[in-house]
Design a protein that fits this description.
The protein is of the alpha/beta class and 372 residues long. It has eleven helices and 13 strands. The strands form three sheets. It has an eight-stranded mixed sheet, sandwiched between helices. A three-stranded antiparallel sheet has the order 1-2-3, with no helix packed on it. The longest helix has 25 residues. The chain is elongated, with a radius of gyration of 29 Å. 28% of the residues are buried. Belongs to the LysR transcriptional regulatory family. InterPro entries: LysR-type_TF_proteobact-type (IPR058163), LysR_HTH_N (IPR000847), LysR_subst-bd (IPR005119), WH-like_DNA-bd_sf (IPR036388), WH_DNA-bd_sf (IPR036390). Keywords: DNA-binding, Transcription, Transcription regulation.
Length: 372
């Protein structure tokens, strides 16, 4: 049903090209209006365009680009163009004007968009309600090392408690695109627009997303950096009792924290030596392995270290902790938090994050705690 309009004296029912007008309703029959229309609908034959054509039109209208609409719907530009032509043929009027490098909407296109947008929203919400209590697949995009060290050892607890929800886990450090249909929830680390951070704090060299429009955010835990080193390397090079002692070691950088060492040292009145020859790795799980192998000293998130399986083979020198200019967050499309399956997963993640915050409040293993 495209639309129902009720006035004081008449009822007009529109379903594509079907219109019933001038149906005067007596006062005593008004209470039965909804059931009467429902009975009528069951005996009507709809003439509606294909849903894919409507989705192609709606996406093309928002982007004013067949190419970008195709990227959103995972179709080629040509496929989108064909769906638009199909819809125009069905309606008998042009919806877009094709120009050399862009498209523009016709007056008829703008009017049709206003008419169907609410209908598509209703279909989407009804569909979410219909599948809420059935088997659901929720796609979760997590930073690689956090997925390996923290999430994976715990995820079985969630799936065991929620057998109707399947979690599809993917990992990336790239800015997440929540406006595609590939990701329901993401865990990223960085800054949230509008929030204030200590300018002196170590920077996080990651963007959580490139498009913050209609993004819902929930905080998880802070990004606390600690230095780590192999006890065997420390025996060979020398004790670490002050920040300056770290400069006798080879520094190890990680791609998502390229500014960590310069910023951390600056907080302690130091700088990276000009003749330093740091090692660079793409992910923290590689960095941690390099530290364990005695390649140098690194700054790593405490959230990762607390759950690293080789943490007993590493030492955290007693130099204190530094919180980065950013934190770990849950990100999702605005409105997704109301979905039953997504909400269940987010509530569970929030509970696990709370436990991790408690663990991070406990003292870490320091050099003095390691047996000689």
């Amino acid at each position: 049903m495209v639309g129902v309009h009720l006035s004081h004296q008449q009822t007009i029912f529109s379903a594509s090209d079907v219109c019933i007008s001038e149906c005067v309703i007596d006062q005593h029959r008004r209470g039965n209006l909804v059931s009467s229309l429902s009975n009528l609908v069951r005996h009507m034959s709809y003439r509606l365009p294909p849903l894919l054509a409507l989705r192609a039109f709606e996406a093309s209208t928002r982007h004013l680009s067949f190419t970008k609409a195709g990227e959103e719907l995972h179709l080629t530009q040509g496929a989108i163009s064909r769906q638009i032509r199909l819809l125009e043929s069905f309606l008998g009027q042009k919806l877009f004007v094709r120009l050399t490098r862009k498209i523009e909407m016709t007056p008829a296109g703008r009017e049709y968009f206003r008419s169907i947008q609410q209908a598509l929203d209703i279909i989407s919400m009804a569909t979410h309600r219909a599948v809420r209590d059935t088997h659901r697949v929720v796609t979760l995009d997590v930073l690689p090392t956090l997925a390996t060290c923290w999430l994976m050892p715990r995820l079985a607890q969630f799936t065991e408690a929620h057998r109707d929800i399947e979690v599809r886990l993917i990992s990336s450090i790239d800015p997440v695109n929540l406006h595609s249909e590939k990701v329901d929830v993401a865990i990223r680390v960085g800054k949230v627009p509008g929030q204030r951070y200590d300018r002196r704090a170590p920077r996080i060299d990651l963007d959580m997303t490139e498009n913050w429009k209609d993004v819902y955010v929930e905080p998880l835990f802070p990004d606390i950096l600690v230095p780590v080193v192999s006890p065997h390397l420390m025996d060979a090079v020398g004790a670490i009792n002050a920040p300056a002692d770290l400069l006798q070691y080879r520094l190890i950088n990680t791609a998502s924290r390229r500014h960590a060492w310069p910023d951390w040292l600056a907080l302690h009145g130091l700088r990276v030596p000009d003749d330093a020859n740091p090692l660079d790795f793409g992910h923290f799980f590689i960095t941690l392995q390099a530290v364990k192998d005695g390649k140098g000293v690194a700054l790593v998130p405490k959230a990762v270290l607390e759950n690293y399986e080789g943490r007993d083979e590493l030492v955290v020198p007693p130099l204190g902790e530094v919180t980065s200019a950013g934190a770990y967050h849950l990100l999702m499309r605005e409105g997704a938090q109301e979905d039953g399956a997504v909400r269940s997963l987010c509530d569970w993640l929030a509970g696990e994050a709370s436990r991790l915050r408690c663990e991070m409040d406990q003292p870490t293993v320091v050099a003095a705690d390691v047996p000689a």
